[in-house]
Design goal:
58% of the residues lie in helices and 8% in strands. The structure holds FE2/S2 (inorganic) cluster (FES). The site of FE2/S2 (inorganic) cluster has 12 residues, from loops. One of its GO terms (molecular function) is 2 iron, 2 sulfur cluster binding.
C-alpha cells in the first residue's frame, strides 16, 4: 500500500527505513522522498513511526 502517492513510497519502504535507523519523518523524507511534495503523507508516516516505537517499547 502506498503511504506517499506523490513519490510512490510504500508502507514497507517506510518500515525498511525505520529498521535501517530512521527516527523521524524528516529522516524518512530524506531517504525515501516521502513527504517532500504535498506533505499529506507526513501524518501517516508519523503514525507508522509511533507504532513502530510502541512495538519496540513493548518488545
Ligand atoms: S503524498 Fe507524500 S508528498 Fe504528497
Amino acid at each position: 500500500m502506498y503511504v506517499c502517492i506523490c513519490q510512490a513510497v510504500t508502507e514497507s519502504e517506510v518500515h525498511a527505513c525505520i529498521q535501517a535507523g530512521a527516527k523521524s519523518a524528516r529522516q524518512i523524507r530524506d531517504t525515501t522522498g516521502a513527504g517532500k511534495d504535498c506533505a499529506t503523507c507526513v501524518r501517516k508516516i508519523c503514525a507508522i513511526l509511533k507504532r513502530s516505537e510502541e512495538l519496540v517499547a513493548t518488545a
